[in-house]
Amino acid sequence: MPQPRLTDDQRRAALAELPQWTMAEGREALQRRFTFRNFNEAFGFMARAALTAEKMDHHPEWSNVYKTVDVVLATHDAGGLTELDLKLARAMDRIAATMGA
Amino acid sequence: MPQPRLTDDQRRAALAELPQWTMAEGREALQRRFTFRNFNEAFGFMARAALTAEKMDHHPEWSNVYKTVDVVLATHDAGGLTELDLKLARAMDRIAATMGA
Predict the structure, then answer these.
(1) How many domains does chain A divide into?
(2) Does residue B66 have a pLDDT over 80?
(3) What is the pTM of this model?
(4) Residue A36 in 3-state DSSP?
(5) Closest residue in A to B65 (Cα–Cα)
(6) Which residues of B touch A (CB under 8 A)?
């Protein structure tokens, strides 16, 4: 069953609840930059987040340059944000928090 | 000891030897897109390449969207391409080849 797209109110509430995420420029998507101490930690975060994403069958768009990981979350099938994106954003925040980022 | 930047001749020879890589737009860097069957394979490739990169202490700039991995290689300290980039490009090609990409 496809996820329903968030309403404007739901999107606003989600942004309030996820203070480190912002709306991506020019599209309905969430973005956050995670900064770690080095590549080992940055890729360690990616490995943990990848396992979570695969389990959810919902995957990030992300890029990595040394200790930085830039993440964009959106639900392509829904043409915007859904509860899946919020769930993955929260999970990534939790993983990063255990790693001091 | 910093790596010396490749000469024009060395760069041309490298591109001939690495037919799936091209020069990035507007900068002295190599780029290649790797396409796999799914996220599991794409991230598996990234995990193997990350171990190689960490061992070399030379890291890619890369992004991943589901089954696609876009890689850019350059040596920041040298302001362009060095032998390290060629070594990492060859290693990534070898890893991808074992995964059917």
Answers:
(1) 1
(2) yes
(3) 0.96
(4) coil
(5) A61
(6) 39-40, 43, 46-47, 50, 53-54, 59-66
What CATH number has the domain bearing residue B34? 3.30.1360.20
Measured in residues, chain B has a length of 101
- Which range marks the domain in which residue B56 is found? 28-98
Q: Which positions in chain A touch B66 (Cβ < 8 Å)?
A: 59
In a domain, B13, yes or no: no
Q: How many CB atoms lie within 10 A of CB A21?
A: 22
How far is B14 from chain A, CA to nearest CA, in Å? 23
**Is B14 within a domain?**
no
What is the interface size between A and B, counted as CB pairs within 8 Å?
A: 37
Cβ burial, residue B17 (10 Å; 0-12/13-18/19+) = exposed
Within-domain flag for B87: yes
- Determine, yes or no, domain membership for A18: yes
The predicted-structure confidence for B5-64, as pLDDT tens digits, reads as follows 999 999 999 999 999 999 999 999 999 999 999 999 999 999 999 999 999 999 999 999
